[in-house]
Amino acid sequence: MTDKNNDEWEEIFESIDMDFLPLEYINTVIVTFRDGKVWEIDLDKTKTKLTETVDVEETLGDFFEQYEKDIEHVDFRIDTDSIKRDVGKRTRRFLKLNK
After folding, report:
1. What's this model's pTM, rounded to 2 decimal places?
2. Quick one: which H or E segment has residue 64?
3. Mean pLDDT, each 10-residue run in order, the chain (99 residues)
4. From CA 53, how far away is CA 89, in angstroms rounded?
């Protein structure tokens, strides 16, 4: 990928409202606790252990509920390559169907 393409994707990602991002695009959750401990949760590994996306959502929900008072910060790392691939596929399909 060229620097120009990277710059364009960076601009696209900066303009996205991240209030909702499908779980399949999140590959890591980094949780910082008030006591300074940091947990890195690899969702790719978790997804292979659990059979359904709902299981991962429930597990994360339970985790955040249990540790809510102890958590200082949560950082979600996204799989930008998957997003780029899916957006590219959908864009090509949209353009092909709307000629």
Report:
1. 0.64
2. helix 53-67
3. 64 63 84 96 73 71 91 89 86 82
4. 22
